[in-house]
Specification:
Layout (H helix, E strand, L loop, with lengths): L1 H35 L13 H25 L5 H26 L4 H26 L10
Helix pairs in contact: 1-2, 1-4, 2-3, 2-4, 3-4
Length: 145
Amino acid sequence: MAERLESLKAGMIGGLSLGFAFIFTSLINTLVLAKYFSLFATLLIEPLTLHFLLSGAIASFSGLLFGVTYRYIIRKDNNPHLKTGGVFAFGLVRGLTQIEVGGNITVSLLPHLVLALESILWFAIAAIALDTAIQLGWLKPFPST
């Protein structure tokens, strides 16, 4: 039961960090990229709309799943390849899907490449938050056997 509680804490940390990363990047996309570069107009998400709230909920849920999985991936090992592999696995699955869908909808793939890089950034932020929580003792890594 204690391990399940730690996994729940890892999921909550991952979900919150991805939620905050979503809000931050959405603001940058809306206030900078979409406003000053017409090529990135598709990145505009009006705050507090159904689309914004649904996208934020999906990002937070993805972070929850990442947090639980990341805890099991890294265990007590100090292997940077495991950490970056987990980040890239989650980030690329989300990002490459956005590129594929974007290629079917629009002519320009550049905005969707930005979203793909954004996805990797989100999961990197979540990994940093989880690693920090482990270092501070707020979260226990999954024991290696």
